[in-house]
Queue: 2 jobs
Job 1
Amino acid sequence: LSRISRETTDLFHGPRYSVISGLGYGAMSAMFMYVNVLAEASGPGTYYTPGSPTMPIFVSGAFQASAMTGLHVCWSLLCAEGVEKRSLPLLMSVLTSHMFVSALTLLNEAGISPLYAILCSYIALAVVGAFTFRRLSGNFMPFFKVL
C-alpha cells in the first residue's frame, strides 16, 4: 500500500485498490465462513455435512471459502468500474451474482449435497471471472501491477 500511495494522490486509482479491497473482503469473508467450521474441529471426531455423509465439513467449507475469495476480487473490480462509469446495469449484475452465490450456501442447510453448491460457486466464479476479464479489456496488467 505504501508503494501505491507514493505513486498517486488519487483516492481511487484504477483497479489497484479494487484488487486490494477485493482480496481483503475475500479474506474477511473466508474467515467468517470458516471460523464456525474451525470451532467444530476442537471436539473429537470428524463432522460431515448433512447432505453428504462422505464429505467432511472442513473440505466443503474450504472449497466454498476459496470460491468466495476469488468472487470478491472480481466483484470489487466490477463494482469499482460500475461506480466510476455510473453503470447501473453493471452494479446490478454484481448485486445479483452476489445474492445468487450467497444463497447457494443455504443448500448446505437444506440437506442437499454440498457438491452442488460448490460446483455452482465455481461455475459462477468462472463466469464472473471471464466477465471481469472482458470488462477490463482482457488485460492482465492491473493484476500484475499490484505485485
Job 2
Amino acid sequence: MADGFDKIQKLPDPVPGCPNFRRVPGFKVYCCGQPTIAGFENVLNKVCGDTYPKDGPIIWFNLRQEPNVYVNGDPICARPPNKIGEYAELGAITRDIQKANEEEFLKVCEMRKTENGGKLKAVDINKKELEIEVKELKSLSQVIEGVKEKFPGLVHWRVPICNSAAPLAGDFDIICKTLVGTAINTPVIINDQVGLSRATTGCVVACLFKEFQISASFEGLVETVPGINASLLKTDRYVMNPEKDTLFRGEFEVVKTLVSTLKDGAAAKNECDKVIDKNGTPKTGGTGIKQLRENIAESKLSYEIMDDAAQAFLKMKIMDNIHKYYYLILFTAYMREAADLAREAVADEKKGELTLAGGRCAIPGDQLKLSKKFVQFVDENPKLRDLVETGKGNLQWERDIPQAALSNLENLAATDFKANLGKIIHDIYQTAHLMFSDMPQGDHKKRAKYRFASKTLMRILPQPLSKEIEAKIEQKAITLDLYEILGACTWGQA
C-alpha cells in the first residue's frame, strides 16, 4: 500500500516530502509521518537549522509495525488485505520481526518487478490499484544508510507499537535506553505513517524522558539562582480548565483509582496531562492533530450514535485508549521516581564535581542513568497492571433512563401494550428529548434518540412478546430497529 495519499497533510506549513511535521512546544521533540527519501533530508535540515551541528547526535524512532520499501523515493508498506486503509494493528511485532519482514518485502518487490517488466502493482488507502514503473527500489534500512552520509550522528531505531492500546512496558524501556546518554538538547524525531496516534504516543514518552532529564539535572541548579521561585517550575502543578467535562479531564474511574494508589499519583497525572496537552491540538497548547486524552472523550460521545457493529469496534478502541492513557500516567510516575533515584545515585567521587554552592547536585543530562527498567517498575506493582485490565471498560456506556419515566413506560406496557402503544412511543420520544438535550440539533442527535427509542421499546415489551421479538432478531429476520420491532409487534412481520 502506498503510504502517501491525497489530503494526508493536516497541518499548516508543510515540510516537502514529510507529512504533518511539527515540533512539540517547549521540547526538542518532533513528530511526523513517513517521509520520502528527500523528506528525510528536508526534516533533518529543518531540525538542525543554523545552530545544531549536522554531525551531532539525532535520535529518530520509527513506531510502525508494517515494513517499508521505497519505490522511486516514495514509501510503500506491506499490509494484509484486510488492513488496507485501516489502522495497522498487526499483533506482537518486534523490531527483529519488522526488520526481517522488511528484507522479505524487498525480495518480493524485486521478484514482482522482474516478473512484471519493471513495474510494481500496489494500491492506495482507498484500494485503488496503482501500477508503478520502478526506477529505484530500496529498503528503509538502505535509505537510512544513505541519509547518514550527510547526518552521521543519526540513530534510527524501530519500536513497533500498536495504534490504540499502550506500548508494551518493554517498548517504553527501548525508548528510554536509546535516550539515556543523550543531552537535553539532542533532537528526537518520531514517525508513524501519517503522524497521528502512534507518533503522538511516542512523542509523549520522549517528552516525559526530557522532563526526567530536566528534573534530575536542573533542580539543584535552579535553587541556587536568587529570586527564582522553584515551585513555579514544577510541572506537576499543571492545572487543566476545571470547566471541562470530567471525561475530557481524563477522570475515568480506573484512572482515579490509579492516582489514589500511586505515590504522588495526582502529581504524576498532572505532569502527564501537561505533556499530553503540549502534544495535542492547538486548543490545548500543542501543534499536533491528535489529543490522546480528549480523543477518548470524543469517541465516547460518538458511541451513542453508532449502530451495534460500530459500537463494538468503538468500545474496544475506547478501552484501548484508556489503557494507553493509564500506562502513560504510570510511566510518568516511574520517570518521577527515576529522577529522585538518579540524583541520589551519583558516586561520591563525582559529587564534588557536581555539587553547587547550595549543596545540591546538578547532573548533566547525558550523565543521568536509570537504576531500573519500567518493566521492573510494573512488575513491582502487579495490582496496578491487573487494575487496568479489569477497569478500562468501567464507563457508563448507555445513558440511564430516569426511573420515573421507566416506571411509567413499564406500567403502560403491562396494562395493555397494544392499546397504549401510541402513548408509549410518544412518551419514549419525550423522555429521549429530555435525556439528549445536551446534544446539538442535527443527524447525530436524531440517530441517538432513535437508537434509544429502539432499545427502550425492547426493554419494556411484555414477556411473551419480548421472547418472540428476541428470537426474530437472533434469527436475523429483523434487526434492533424501532420500525421493524413495531412492525413485528403489530402485524407479526417486519
